[in-house]
Amino acid sequence: MSVILAIESSCDDTSVAICNNGKITANVIANQTIHENYGGVIPELASRVHQQNIVPTVEQALMNAKVTKQDISAVAFTQGPGLLGSLLVGVSFAKSFALALNIPLISINHMHAHILAHFIDDPKPTFPFLCLTVSGGHTQIVLVRDYFDMEIVGETLDDAAGEAFDKTAKILQLPYPGGPLIDKHAKLGNPKAYKFAEPQIADLNFSFSGFKTSILYFIRKQEKENANFIAENLDDICASVQHSIVQILLTKLKKAAKQYNIKEVAIAGGVSANSGLRAGLQETANELGWNVFIPAFQYCTDNAGMIAIAGYQKFLKKDFVGQEVSPMARMEF
Ligand code: KG4
Ligand code: ZN
């Protein structure tokens, strides 16, 4: 029997989840809207808001899961990677909580957790599988041999896929974070309306910085002829940008699947909420006979449910850490 309380505070969302015997019974996410005013996450503000949100979010999660503090068997937390000031709030809270209740502490790598989100609901992938993890800070193709036996076989050399979405949105004067807005407009546009330069990288790695620049130059050029170009063509621009990013991602994923001879393929991370990527992956799967795994929306973007399920796997192995543990902005995979 186990009840794991999990805390995620690596960026700008404070999230607390409960995993009761391997089932997620609460996943509360307190979003921080304050960053919208600045066009990006302000680390100092993020840690302050985590500080305000952490206690009410824990209380809400306990209430949703219908458990009390005394029922908790262990506390799992995101140790990194992420913003140091944000991580500090979650790690300090987790340590104090575990100390007060005299229960074990479990440290989780945020990037492992995005992948392990696939073990929350059925159907679950079988090992080995490939996972394309696409978020605001990372773009990785990971060969997953077991719960904590993972190898990065391809990754971005510069910007992450989420950044490509968010920076394009900024060029299009959409508010932060722009990824979900590009997705929304893309649904109404023509994905073949415009074509952008795709990066030419031979191996399984990615590059998005040149792609982003090509969009910027394209928009500037169009605006010279028509000052209202963005407003008049927003849906088509978003659909075309999204289509290009999805193609870049799927091309490398197909290459990896072929190279490793694996047909069990998953996506994870904030960008896996993207409807174009979800549809494109399903299409590729039908074409190549893949088994694909796409997390429920609430487990794509940052959430503590994924930390709780990863924590549960470590709890079963009694893989605990001591009170000397500290957050790590950069963390070895
Ligand atoms: O995993 P996540 O919540 O946080 C990080 O660990 O980075 O990912 C956030 C990223 C942001 O760049 C956001 O714009 C992007 O995921 N995102 C999307 C969508 N929903 C979130 N990008 C494209 N389409 C979406 N529907
Ligand atoms: Zn994340």
UniProtKB/TrEMBL annotation:
Coiled coil: none annotated. One of its GO terms (biological process) is tRNA threonylcarbamoyladenosine modification. The keyword Iron applies. Gene3D superfamilies: 3.30.420.40. Fe cation binds at residues 110, 114, 302. It catalyses: L-threonylcarbamoyladenylate + adenosine(37) in tRNA = N(6)-L-threonylcarbamoyladenosine(37) in tRNA + AMP + H(+). Binds 1 Fe(2+) ion per subunit. One of its GO terms (molecular function) is iron ion binding. SUPFAM superfamilies: Actin-like ATPase domain (SSF53067). Its cofactor is Fe(2+). Keywords: Acyltransferase, Cytoplasm, Iron, Metal-binding, Transferase, tRNA processing. InterPro entries: ATPase_NBD, Gcp-like_dom, KAE1/TsaD, Peptidase_M22_CS, TsaD. It is an enzyme of class 2 (transferase). Residues 23-308 form the Gcp-like domain. Signal peptide: none annotated. Required for the formation of a threonylcarbamoyl group on adenosine at position 37 (t(6)A37) in tRNAs that read codons beginning with adenine. Is involved in the transfer of the threonylcarbamoyl moiety of threonylcarbamoyl-AMP (TC-AMP) to the N6 group of A37, together with TsaE and TsaB. TsaD likely plays a direct catalytic role in this reaction. PANTHER family: TRNA N6-ADENOSINE THREONYLCARBAMOYLTRANSFERASE, TRNA N6-ADENOSINE THREONYLCARBAMOYLTRANSFERASE, MITOCHONDRIAL. Belongs to the KAE1 / TsaD family. This is tRNA N6-adenosine threonylcarbamoyltransferase. The lineage of its organism: Bacteria, Pseudomonadati, Bacteroidota, Sphingobacteriia, Sphingobacteriales. The gene is tsaD.
